[in-house]
Specification:
alpha/beta, 42% helix, 24% strand, globular, Arc Repressor Mutant, subunit A
Length: 218
């Protein structure tokens, strides 16, 4: 698997290069936003390990730009700030997973393997469910032709489910990605699902009892 590690700290880059190469991956490195853009323009990559704080810009902004350019390579964001707002911003920008610093190298290796198995997620531009329309490019939702305001967390859940093309996503995975495994995530997820159904209609989300949720598409 081809992995691009983006971090401006040389010691972190070297550690990840050694560890991921030890797993048999083909690993390259970059230290800035501009260098990352150049490498992705020239090379095919299976997973990007991307630090949020880079000397010439934000990893979150870079992730958003990559998605706008149609690059769907899975992105694992590394951040020294594990606060919920930053994780939500990263997910809204199209990141696939988060890992806070300092991290266990064994966990990072496992997350890279998981993202590599998943492969690129092709997010649809629009999804219809009953009389609801969700336009991910315009970031606009409406029901029966009337615009419906959605919160950042509601968008994050819808985008996560949309990326799976109607397949069910396990509750545990949703909680890990949106709440970073917080113990409050389970209750918060129930509230979030109820809010989305109230705004977009009961058909918007499907439930597999005891497992998870999927986005309903007509």
């Amino acid at each position: 698997m081809r992995v691009l590690v983006v971090d401006d700290h040389e010691d972190v880059r070297d550690l990840l290069l050694r560890s991921l190469r030890g797993d048999g991956h083909e690993v390259s490195a970059a230290a800035t936003v501009s260098e990352t853009r150049a490498r992705l323009a020239d090379d095919v990559v299976d997973v990007v390990v991307l630090d949020v704080a880079l000397p010439d810009g934000s990893g979150i902004d870079l992730c958003r730009a990559l998605r706008q350019d149609g690059i769907s390579t899975p992105v694992l964001l590394l951040t020294a700030h594990a606060a919920v707002p930053e994780r939500v911003a990263g997910l809204d920008a199209g990141a696939d997973d988060f890992l806070g610093k300092p991290f266990a190298v064994s966990e990072l290796r496992a997350r890279v393997r998981a993202l590599g198995r998943r492969g690129p997620e092709l997010r649809p531009m629009e999804v219809r469910a009953g009389d609801a329309l969700v336009d991910f490019r315009a970031r606009r939702a409406e029901r029966a032709g009337v615009e419906v305001p959605l919160t950042a967390r509601e968008w994050s859940l819808l985008e996560l489910l949309a990326a799976r093309s109607g397949r069910f996503v396990a509750r545990a995975e949703i909680i890990e990605l949106l709440w970073h495994g917080s113990t409050d995530g389970a209750a918060s997820l129930e509230v979030l699902v109820a809010r989305i159904r109230r705004k977009l209609g009961e058909r918007a989300l499907r439930t597999m009892r005891g497992f998870g949720y999927a986005l309903h598409t007509d």
